[in-house]
């Protein structure tokens, strides 16, 4: 009995210690809430007593600040209960202002995530109980943080961003639109409705497809039988079917048979100096009539006499064209850069298209003789040849050995990594007033938490995270013993054209 009495007295004494007397409340209220201001940082020890005293004073102020107990009113604290099986904190009293950006409701009950409950405990807004006993902040760190919920580094990033005013939510992979949804530019509300109400259309059964195939086969067999009967009844060999109405011509009754292929004869060598082509518009030629053509060039017994040109010459405008000053300058600039091919003597001596192409090939070979021969005679040759590219874009495409790629290229063939995962969706502080947990909208960035002692993310990890995040950039939060640094990798493209 004595042991039970002493245990109950100790429990009552510990409970009463949580309630402060009026003098202690007044002392806590009049306590200074300013953080001690330190001077310049000492990077190297000097060994002087002054430096040692200054460092000891800073350490004493630091431990005194950490040892202070926070005093809060019981009426301002929201009572909550920790449920370890569900890894959630259930609210027992109405939530405060924090409910706009934190927590969720399920079946009429309000819940907080472990990181949200621990952050609100540190802010003095929530008091969490477990087995009818209040949890201290140290016990909250031990019970709320784990690999199944959030790690210590993830909570440090969460608390740091919340203190800066950001809205931080856990990352949900189902909130990222698919490639098809992003291509259609569907809003978030319509995506949610489609995911809830969209039903899969019934596809045709294999039996219906087989019946359709058998019907088509029966049709083809009947048509083939009819064709065979027609061939048997007509005792002549089968003729090719007539063309469709769209392919027929209205002036012909029979099908046109293509002429047999003729042997290609060599192109005749025309003597253009002996053939006169009359120029009726020239002032130098004032002939009134044209002589009859050579009878050997006319088909059959066709006879053609001379042609009187007096009527046609009266209709030809032989007035000399007068250009303005601006037109003459334009023509001069055009003739300066554009050479007339008819003024080239070598081109005028060409008698066929093949001779003209051969002339161009000879000129190209003559130009290539001027380049250094030793560069193209070895195994390693230049990436491009002179005169092969017509623009800077083509030149840059030919000399680019490593082709540019995007984040989403080849992601499907990569093996997934369990080390790198997106932890939080981050929303900017200026969106808190209009923020809705039911429709949070597109986040400002997505956070991947990692340690300073861990490895640097490679290209494989960055591609997977970028593909998992969609069109939202990914930020890496690197935690170094409480100090948090933020890094991001952005996709960029090298210029492909020069202007």
Automatic annotation (TrEMBL):
InterPro entries, A to Z: tRNA_splic_suSen54, tRNA_splic_suSen54_N
Keywords on record: tRNA processing
Gene Ontology cellular component list: tRNA-intron endonuclease complex
Record flagged with keyword Ligase: no
Residue segments, region Disordered: 178-245
GO BP, sorted A to Z: tRNA-type intron splice site recognition and cleavage
Start and end residues of each tRNA-splicing endonuclease subunit Sen54 N-terminal domain: 63-130
Keyword tRNA processing (UniProt): yes
Compositional bias of kind Basic residues: 193-204
Annotated Polar residues bias: 178-188
Family: Belongs to the SEN54 family.
Protein name according to UniProt: TSEN54 tRNA splicing endonuclease subunit
Lineage of producing organism: Eukaryota, Metazoa, Chordata, Craniata, Vertebrata
């Amino acid at each position: 009995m004595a042991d039970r009495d002493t245990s109950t007295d100790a429990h009552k004494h510990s409970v009463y210690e949580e309630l402060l007397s009026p003098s202690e409340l007044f002392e806590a209220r009049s306590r200074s809430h300013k953080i001690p201001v330190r001077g310049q940082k000492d990077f190297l020890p000097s060994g002087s007593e002054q430096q040692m005293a200054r460092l000891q004073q800073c350490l004493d102020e630091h431990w005194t600040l950490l040892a202070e107990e926070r005093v809060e009113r019981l009426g301002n604290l929201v009572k909550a209960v920790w449920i370890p099986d569900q890894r959630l904190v259930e609210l027992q009293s109405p939530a405060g202002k924090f409910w706009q950006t934190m927590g969720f409701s399920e079946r009429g009950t309000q819940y907080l995530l472990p990181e949200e409950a621990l952050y609100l405990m540190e802010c003095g807004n929530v008091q969490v109980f477990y087995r009818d006993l209040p949890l201290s902040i140290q016990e909250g760190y031990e019970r709320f943080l784990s690999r199944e919920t959030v790690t210590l580094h993830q909570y440090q990033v969460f608390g740091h961003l919340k203190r800066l005013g950001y809205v931080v939510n856990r990352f949900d992979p189902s909130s990222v639109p698919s490639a098809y949804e992003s291509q259609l530019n569907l809003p978030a509300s319509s995506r949610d409705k489609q995911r809830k109400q969209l039903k899969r259309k019934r596809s045709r059964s294999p039996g219906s497809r087989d019946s359709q195939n058998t019907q088509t086969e029966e049709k083809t067999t009947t048509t083939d039988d009819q064709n065979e009967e027609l061939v048997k009844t007509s005792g002549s060999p089968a003729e090719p079917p007539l063309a469709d109405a769209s392919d027929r011509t209205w002036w012909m009754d029979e099908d046109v048979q293509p002429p047999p292929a003729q042997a290609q004869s060599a192109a005749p060598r025309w003597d253009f100096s002996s053939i006169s082509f009359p120029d009726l518009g020239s002032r130098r030629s004032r002939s009134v009539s044209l002589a009859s053509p050579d009878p050997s060039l006319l088909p059959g017994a066709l006879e053609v006499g001379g042609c009187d040109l007096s009527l046609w010459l009266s209709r030809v405008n032989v007035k000399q064209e007068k250009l303005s000053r601006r037109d003459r300058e334009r023509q001069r600039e055009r003739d300066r850069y554009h050479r007339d091919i008819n003024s080239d003597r070598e081109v005028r001596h060409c008698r066929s298209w093949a001779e003209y192409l051969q002339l161009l090939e000879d000129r190209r070979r003559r130009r290539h003789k001027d380049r250094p021969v030793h560069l193209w005679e070895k195994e390693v040759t230049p990436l491009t040849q002179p005169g092969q590219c017509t623009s800077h874009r083509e030149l840059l495409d030919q000399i680019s050995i490593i082709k540019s790629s995007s984040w989403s290229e080849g992601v499907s063939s990569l093996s997934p990594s369990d080390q790198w995962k997106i932890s939080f969706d981050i929303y900017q502080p200026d969106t808190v007033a209009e923020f809705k947990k039911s429709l949070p909208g597109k986040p400002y960035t997505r956070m991947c938490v990692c340690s300073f002692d861990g490895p640097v993310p490679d290209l494989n990890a960055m591609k997977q995270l970028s593909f998992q995040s969609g069109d939202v950039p990914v930020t890496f939060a690197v935690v170094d013993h409480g100090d948090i640094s933020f890094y991001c990798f952005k996709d960029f493209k090298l210029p492909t054209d020069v202007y």
